[in-house]
Amino acid sequence: MKLDSGKKGLVINLFSLIGFIFLWHILIVLAREDIFNIPFMRLRDIPTPVETWGALAGSMFTRVYGPGVTYGIINHVEASLIRVIQGGVLAFVVGVPLGIWMGYSKLIGNILNPIVEIIRNMPPMAWIPLAIFILVTGGSIFIVFIGMVFPIILNTIHGVKSTDPRLLDAAKTLGASGFGIVTKVVIPSSLPSIVAGLRIGLGVGWMAIVAAEMVIRSPVGLGYFIWNMGDLGRYAEMVAGMIVIGVVGYFMNISILLFQKRFIKWAD
Amino acid sequence: MGRLVLKGVSRKFNNSFAVNNVNLEVNEGEFLCLLGPSGCGKTTVLRLAAGLDTPSSGEIFLDDKKITGANRECGFVFQEYALFPWRTVRGNIEFGPEVKGMQKEEVKRLSQHYIDLVGLTGFENHFPHELSGGMKQRVGIARAYANNPKLLLMDEPFGALDAQTRNIMQGELLRIWEQEHISALFVTHSVDEAVYLADRVVVMSARPGTVKEMFEINLPRPRVRTSPEANELRNSILKSLGAEIKKLVPQV
């Protein structure tokens, strides 16, 4: 059987995934049979892939037991996603204009740079106490905002600064000035960078929301879910939740890449 | 309309003169070629005329109006095209009229006129990265023309093209220029190109650039590149230019 290199790559990807799951299974089974163990780890408590799959399927949807309600994983995904989108929209609305301003005006850049440089080096998680003790509401959205806004600002600045000076000259000889140059040249030419910032920001935002939800105890959200399941000793559900976090993050990244390919065709 | 005058124009970069005391006139409707060894400040002269750069001393006038700041009465054609990659052929050509705030139908009519004029009919919706070098420069020329300039400034516009495309584009430029006649200042380092295109050729000295010699090209168009008269002119221009290039030899 002959495959072209793209398909061959996909086959290798698939086998690698299957191999990983297989290895995982073997490791856990060996630990449970007391044949092999890693010191200081309770490997036997980790669910096998099959148990994880069962837990995933079992807790996917909301279930009602008499008066009690257990939210399904899809509800937790939905809650986390909505927070990331809210925080992300906020970060975009603040970060893009700020980045354009900082990149385009040397003065504004010099004024805001030191502040941005200090604050961006505080991890979003460091803001969680502030969010809990000071913010009345929307703490986890705020954490997402903090995580996302800096990659967006920095990439926007980079995009603005790498605008081809010849295009600026061309626009000037064609009669554009000030605002026209920004809207008709600087912004479109920075667009690939801005989208790259959004993509990086989403990755950070997704990490931040999970951490925030663990600490800011909202009753729904993936971070809350895996923490709660661990607390209850339901490790299969906990690991299933972790995998869902990875898969959702993966698809967020892919969807931005597809958007980029579809709408910013000229940037290659 | 379209008379460019440079009076004693100098431009210093880091305390060294790129161009020194340039006196030059482009007459109404004239096609003038600026020829010189590399680094002699040809591009600097063009950027000064476009108002993209300010002279350290001296003055520049277009139709007796002093040039201060980017001059929207010049159409600039860049060597590396400088097309907006996110705009289609039509979008690039419409940039100037759009900025001017012209009516939509008027903009569209104008861009179609210039698309047809430069021979890009059928490529209206292509993006620059989908075009060949020659086609990109057709867009560059159309974009400059669509802004209704009094003066065309061209900075080695065919420098990045292969020899054959280059010859074709020279012919095309003359065809367009004869249909919509405006003054033109054309920078090149090709003597052949200058003799084929220009009414007058100005040879610049090696850095710091200044006007060294002027040649009238009184040959009827379309010109035959290999005619004896053209050869003779090429010879004398090459001699004048060669003396300047010799000064650079240790540097090349």
Strand and helix map with partners:
The complex is a heterodimer of chains A (268) and B (252).
Chain A: H1 5-32, H2 49-58, E1 63-65, E2 68-70, H3 73-104, H4 106-119, H5 128-133, H6 139-161, H7 165-173, H8 179-215, H9 222-231, H10 235-263
Helix pairs in contact in A: 2-10, 3-4, 3-6, 3-8, 3-9, 6-8, 7-8, 8-9, 8-10, 9-10
Chain B: E1 4-13, E2 16-26, E3 31-35, H1 42-49, E4 57-62, E5 65-66, E6 74-77, H2 89-100, H3 104-117, H4 133-146, E7 151-155, H5 163-179, E8 183-188, H6 191-197, E9 200-204, E10 211-216, H7 228-248
Parallel strand pairs in B: 3-8, 3-9, 6-7, 7-8
Antiparallel strand pairs in B: 1-2, 1-4, 4-5, 9-10
Summarize the structure in short.
The complex is a heterodimer of chains A (268) and B (252). Chain A has ten helices and two strands, in the order ααββαααααααα. Chain A has 268 residues and is mainly α.
How would you characterize the overall build of this protein?
The complex is a heterodimer of chains A (268) and B (252). Chain A has 268 residues and is an all-alpha fold. Chain A folds into 2 domains: 5-46; 69-263, MetI-like fold (Orthogonal Bundle), CATH 1.10.3720.10. Chain A has helices at residues 5-32, 49-58, 73-104, 106-119, 128-133, 139-161, 165-173, 179-215, 222-231, 235-263, and strands spanning 63-65, 68-70. In chain A, strands 1-2 form a two-stranded antiparallel sheet. In chain A, helix 3 packs antiparallel against helix 8 (179-215). The longest helix of chain A is centred in the C-terminal third of the chain and has 37 residues, at 179-215. Chain A is globular and about 75 Å long. The relative contact order of chain A is 0.12. The mean pLDDT of chain A is 92. Chain B has 252 residues and is of the alpha/beta class. Chain B has a domain at 1-73 and 186-252: Rossmann fold (3-Layer(aba) Sandwich), CATH 3.40.50. Chain B has 7 helices and 10 strands. In chain B, the strands form 2 sheets. A 6-stranded mixed β-sheet of chain B has the order 6-7-8-3-9-10, sandwiched between helices. In chain B, strands 2-1-4-5 form a 4-stranded antiparallel β-sheet, with helices on one face. In chain B, a hairpin with a 2-residue loop joins strand 1 and strand 2. In chain B, helix 2 packs across helix 3 (104-117). The longest helix of chain B has 21 residues, at 228-248. The model of chain B has no long low-confidence stretch (mean pLDDT 93). The chains are: A mainly alpha (268), B alpha/beta (252). Chains A and B meet through helix 7 and helix 8 of A and strand 6 and helix 2 of B.
